[in-house]
Amino acid sequence: MLLQKPTTRRKFLLGSLLALPLSELVFKGITAAQAAELAAPELADYKPIFFSAEEWQFILAATDRLIPAGGNGKAPGALETNVPIFIDQQLHSEEFGSEIYMQGPFNINAPATMGYQIPFRPQQLYKTSIKLVEQWTQSTYQKSFHALTEQEKDDVLTKISKNGIDFAALGEENLKASQFFSQLLSDTKHGYLADPMYGGNKGMKAWIAIGFPGARASFTEWVKQHNVPYPLGPVSIKGERA
Which tens digit of pLDDT belongs to each residue from 153-197? Predict the structure, then answer.
């Protein structure tokens, strides 16, 4: 007997929207991209499936400082594009990090050319690191990371990136703070710029902000036209147009 997988809220809403007659979508002024954005979960309502409630508060605060909203073009930030959801869903996947060779020996002081030198898969790296950073901020500020001021958060992230927080002194000798920062920054960038089908880049807002055409079949005629605004919006892998 085949068991049917439960339908997620995102798939149900997207299926419902796309099942509407095209004339009704046009009448309501809803494009395919807008329909997909409506189907994407609201960050405020999202319940993390990998992170605990405390870890989730850290991820929200940290990604918000790594890619804050604003700038001259009022570009969307990590929170507006569902980057935390992307990271949560990637880490929940059994495949994520499964390709990493974990037999050792490991040398966390080895140069980057020696490849991955951490005895943790990304999932354990996140949980271990967040716990240590929270331990440090509680000791230093008597607050959790998410409760710090923006300047304090930036200072803490800078310290993490430069090993200013000594994980070994906090009881973890197999991991450096800078290694956690590199993973967090990389995943934040991926969530911001990846195709929306992976959970981030909600509404293709990041692509719109940087003028990226997405998965358009042909844009070669624009490759050599420098300093000319690209007039067409991006297209997702699923064919959604912004």
Answer: 999 999 999 999 999 999 999 999 999 999 999 999 999 999 999
Residue 113, both tokens: 């050319």
Q: Quote the percentage of the chain above a pLDDT of 70.
A: 83
- Higher per-residue pLDDT: 7 or 145: 145
> CA 217, CA 222: separation in Å to the nearest integer?
13
The pTM of the full predicted model, rounded to 2 decimals, is 0.81
The tokens describing 103, both together, are: 């037999």
3-class DSSP state of 209? helix
| Under 8 Å between Cβ of 40 and 203 | yes
- Long-range contacts of residues 91-98, Cβ cutoff 8 Å, at least 24 apart: 91/50, 91/51, 91/122, 91/123, 91/126, 92/49, 92/50, 96/122, 96/123, 97/121, 97/122, 97/123
Judge whether residue 1 has pLDDT over 60: no
pLDDT value, residue 236: 92
Burial 201-219 (b: 16+ CB within 10 A, else e): bbbbbbbbbeebebeeeee
By the 10 Å C-beta count (0-12 exposed, 13-18 middle, 19+ buried), 149 is classed as: exposed
Instruction: Go through 65-96 and write b for each residue having 16 or more CB atoms within 10 A of its CB, e for each that does not.
Output: bbbbeeeeeebbbbbbbbbbbbbbbbbeeeeb
